[in-house]
Amino acid sequence: MFSETIELRGHIIDSLILPKVLDQILTHGGNFKITEVQIGRKRADQSFARIEVSAETGEALDELILRLRQQGAEVLERANADVAPAPADGVFPPEFYVTTNQQTFVRFDGKEIEVTPAIINSAIAVDRKKGDARAVKFFDVKKGDEIVVGHQGIRVVPVQRATTHTDPFQFINNIVDAEEPKSAIIREIAEELRRAHSAGGKIAVVGGPAIVRTGAGGHLVRLIEGGCIDRLFAGNAFAAYDVERALFGTSLGLSPDVAIARGGHENHLRAINTIREVGGIAAAVREKILTSGIMHACVQHDVDIVLIGAIGDEGPLPGVTTDVIECEKILRDKLRDVTHVMLLATLRYSLALGAFLANNVKTVCVDIDPPAVERAVERQPLQSIGLVTDVEPFLRELDDCLSGSKVSQ
Fold first, then answer.
1. 1-77 has which fold?
2. The whole model's pTM is what?
3. Does the N-terminal or the C-terminal CB of the chain have fewer CB atoms within 10 Å?
4. What are φ and ψ of residue 134, in 5° steps?
5. Rounded to the nearest 10 degrees, how much is the dihedral formed by the CA atoms of 385, 391, 397, 403?
6. Which residue, among 382, 269, 276, has the nearest Cα to 320 in the 3D structure?
7. What are 150-203's pLDDT values in tens digits?
8. Cis (ω within 30 of 0) for the bond into 316?
9. Rounded to 5 degrees, what are φ and ψ at 33?
10. What is the CATH number of domain 168-402?
């Protein structure tokens, strides 16, 4: 048997770190012996555990220790990280370390350097002269870049539960099912948005077309007008439906007010053509062609609009980024300062943006499909709330909770 000793520190009991570590050991065929444990007596007290981990082979032990490090475990011996040069542009060396979205540090010359940004499924490139470490995707890497390999010299700091107050984002069961009452949690979310703006946080919305098609657009407009939203991420369809609703009263040819809308699907294409003709959404607002809707409110209230393209988009509208690599670069940049994000009725973009969220970003996911909510919040288990409901009643009630108070003031 091959063995190594690990240590856990912090709120490892109430944050479920200790049971997760023990579960990982047993699930992957290892054994453990807890040689020391100290449990905090008060809520604010931290706990400590020293565990001897063993496995049948050295390779199995190395793989197991790597998994445990991603849960916040530290090996007893504090060694420096190993690096290897990238063999070619866009290629990592073998055995490169794969990041999580947890806060991560690498050790060089006895000093720890924080890896930024904290995003998943990346490698770590280090610049010893500058003394920095950054998470990089394949397209970021140039031949000769020093890339961290193995798991030695890596320390991961997982998010732990708050000890000073009850935080609705840190419920053990963080998904509110369709049959459960939601008013109390929506009021908590509204209060969190107020606190975020008071502290200088940045709130983003990731919106799906259902916001427009269910008639919830007006509620989102009022949240924007009230200063609740700093950045909007959406696809081409979301913006096109919103513009169509503003110009023709329909979205994809359908109207919430009449059974058969005049113009039908033609309205969708005519709306896109109108925006393309004038040169973009902002230009349409300036020239008073676009005088209402979500896009209009964003332009009027300086909300940053980030539109992402997809195969099959009509148009697309000017300002939609269609290059996949360029989209990744924009998302990484635009999400860097976001502290809170609401994922509203769009599984595709919720999962895409989730890959770029740091583990301390508080996340609210709203979708009518339970599996969609589960997938969207699983990466942020201690910083997320999932609500299984239609997006229209959620936004209506959130708007009611925040009405009468300009949160940005």
1. Alpha-Beta Plaits (3.30.70)
2. 0.79
3. C
4. -135, 145
5. 100
6. 276
7. 888 888 887 766 655 556 665 545 788 888 889 999 999 999 999 998 899 999
8. yes
9. -140, 120
10. 3.40.50.10690
